[in-house]
Amino acid sequence: MSNENKNKKYQTKKRMNPETKDKIVTGFLTLINNDACVKASREWKGALNIIPVTLAIASVVLAVLPSFITQMNVQGASGIYTAPVANFDVGLASFTHALKYDENVQERANLVHVEFTPEGTLKTTNIEELYTELPEGTVKWFVDVDTAYGEPAFEVFFNTGFSTEVDDNTFFTRINSGRDPETGLTRYYDISGAEITKPLASFIAFGKNSLAFRKVTATRGQAGTYEKIAGIDLIDLTPKASDGKDLAYNSYSYRDAIVTNWTKFINSSYEPLKVASAWQFTGVVAAIDLGMIILFGAILFLMTRGKKNPFRIINFWETMKMACYGSFTPALLSLILGFWLVNWSYLIFMFTFGLRMMWMSMKSLRPLPKE
Known about the structure:
This protein is of the alpha+beta class. The protein is built from 9 helices and 9 strands. A hairpin with a 3-residue loop joins β7 and β8. The longest helix is centred in the C-terminal third of the chain and has 52 residues. The protein is elongated, with a radius of gyration of 32 Å.
């Protein structure tokens, strides 16, 4: 075979089919050109129908990704140790110290153990040691009193040791409304004698199967579960020096270690709820985004139903494919902008996709001749 024949054969093999080339070009143009979306939807048949469906699913995933990742990166302790801390740092330091030492800084004869079983329940030992004497009497919870004002600055409640069984929902509701967790009676009154229905101190509350935190400056609390902290005893959060001895109470090292230990504890307790919440929110937003793609596909179909509309030949499946093709670029914009505009990330896709569909209906599918 001559060299000339070889070159011709090589060139023939390297030449791309014009139809294939046109499809590749059209496919890329669907990212920015609505006419290309219409063309691909009408001309691509058979196995190629998998492309718009895949693009629609990928668009939904990309659109919700920023919201999902942002929520999964939230740490439970971030809301606790963000200024103002509202006595949470000092209160947790005092509470942790009180598990092992009395007010005279002497080790208790009966150490207090607050544990969380593998079954996800609260277990306490010698909890009576933490009951606090207040002017109105002894209360069945720990109170860190502000020495300057003589009022509670931080409190720790336990759903145990009550004369009457109290379920966790009632327990947390009473505490959040400033009531006695055992009796449900009002604890505070203002100068006019009216009931105060909110807590006047930051607190942590341990229920039978879950826990809750709340800063007095916050409008609502934060919940947690025992799932990821099973086997932990709160007395083990007592800060220790390198030699294994307890750090000196109220030292800078003690305070820093308390923050570190409790940050890990709070984050772990919040983890199951965070994951469940992130998936739930993502699922709702994903369903809305997918619903928008289907909705706009249906709208395009209805808009082309006029008797004299030249686009009346377009069927329902083809308008659905137009919406699918048109969804991918808005999803990419959502992915890029979502990590910057975190609070609006779940709305970016809805807004940009809606704009593109409106532009497609006005320019690419209008019954009048194009200018």
